[in-house]
Amino acid sequence: MGSQAGSNSVHPLEAGDSSSADGGGAAQEARALDAYSRIVTSVADLLIPSVASLKIMQAVRGGRVPAGAGSGVIVTPDGYLLTSAHVVGRTRSGSATLSDGRELMFEVVGSDPLSDLAVIRVPDTDLPAAVLGDADDLRVGQLVVAIGNPLGFSGSVTAGVVSALGRSFPAQGRRSARMVENVIQTDAALHPGNSGGALSDSAGRVVGINTAVVGPGIGQGLGLAIPINETTRMIVSTLMKDGRVRRAYLGIAGGPRPLPPRAARAVGRERGVEVVQVVPGSPAAGGGVREEDIIIDVDGAPVADGGDIQRMMTGAMIDRTVPVRLLRGGKVVHIMVTPVELDD
Q1: Around Cβ 177, how many Cβ atoms within 10 Å?
Q2: What was the pLDDT predicted at 12?
Q3: In CATH terms, is domain 248-341 a member of 2.30.42.10?
Q4: Are 123 and 79 in contact (CB under 8 A)?
Q5: Pairing state between β 294-298 and 301-302
Q6: Alpha carbon distances (Å) from 104 to 65, 88, 128, 170
Q7: Residue 329, exposed/middle/buried by CB under 10 A (0-12, 13-18, 19+)?
Q8: In DSSP terms, which residues pair with 157 in a beta bridge?
């Protein structure tokens, strides 16, 4: 009887198991927080030496005066840095302060306002270059770390998550504008001065160049970053080599539109780009594109939205006559168009 009673009774220490379980949960939460902290601190240790504070100088009568500030990411050991085009603006030089205190004058190698990217170079070697990742591998909710010089405070670190992918925002050149596609949206706090700085994944790979703060003021909880991907690498390589990015120009405005079922079956496409405007005198106008046409493919490549056409308008397309297949009044029409260089 006694042994049975003892087997069914609750020992005072056993009664505390629930509180022990709570304590275990708290300990587990603390361990998780420590793991989070370890990731952020390891990224900071790795990347802070690779992010410089930039001061932009503007020539005026009698000398040069400060004209702005931002951040830059060292991408090669021999002195190339990647930053935002709007940080350098139209200036050709400035100073870059590294985390070890060195202040080096930089020259602008190339700038591309239509992607908001610029490459600058400092006269030094053996610099701590950052490792570039691939933003195409990012997922919504993934941890990211932003490093830059917000409000002039160099080496500042903020952390957050990828809050959205595939965003776009308009970039303005001197005479032209275009949409920058596949922009990363993050809730890692960004402020003026963060522009041109690094957005990193948890492994310390730079997956974006911070470019904008969303909202009428600062610290609105949403920031945008230009993704580091194959397209970005091509732009950076071109800026290093040529100092500018050449783009082709077609001369239309339009948006995505589903194809009617019968037409979709006939052409093997589900969507196209409906033309809402044709610029007079443009290559599209000269080739016979009309408003309300639905462009199905260009040079044999399918197009489902304006971004598809925009991505095709590279320097290789300039002055090259290409076939365009479109739907007009329910009928498939084939025309030839010769894009010209976008004048910016």
Answers
A1: 11
A2: 40
A3: yes
A4: yes
A5: antiparallel
A6: 16, 15, 14, 32
A7: exposed
A8: 147
Separation CA 91–CA 157 (nearest Å): 27
Cα–Cα distance for residue pair 64/97, rounded to 1 Å: 18
Question: pTM, whole model, 2 decimals?
Answer: 0.79
> What are the beta bridge partners of residue 60?
63
Write out the H or E segment, with its range, that includes residue 58: strand 51-60
- Six-digit token string for 210: 């911070």
What DSSP line would sit under 120-138, residue for residue? EE-S--S--PPPB--GGG-
Spatial contact of 76 and 101, defined as CB atoms under 8 Å apart: no
Distance from C-alpha of 2 to C-alpha of 9, rounded to nearest angstrom: 10
Top-tier CATH class for 1-245: mainly beta
Q: Chain-wide mean pLDDT for the chain?
A: 87
Rounded Cα distance, 317 and 334, in Å? 18
Question: With bands split at pLDDT 50, 70 and 90, how would you rate the model's confidence at 220?
Answer: low
199, β-bridge pairs: 146, 208
* Tokens (6 digits) for 150: 């917000």
Which phi and psi angles does 336 have, rounded to 5°? -120, 135
Residues marked active site are found at: 86, 116, 195
Q: List the domain boundaries for the chain.
A: 1-245, 248-341
Please name which of 281, 282, 276, 269 lies closest in space to residue 332, comparing C-alpha atoms.
269
First vs last C-alpha separation in the chain? 95
Q: Residue 94 pLDDT more than 60?
A: yes
Smallest CA-to-CA distance from 172 within 211, 116, 215 is with 116
Closest CA to 274 of 297, 294, 290: 294
Q: How far apart are CA 89 and CA 46, in angstroms?
A: 29
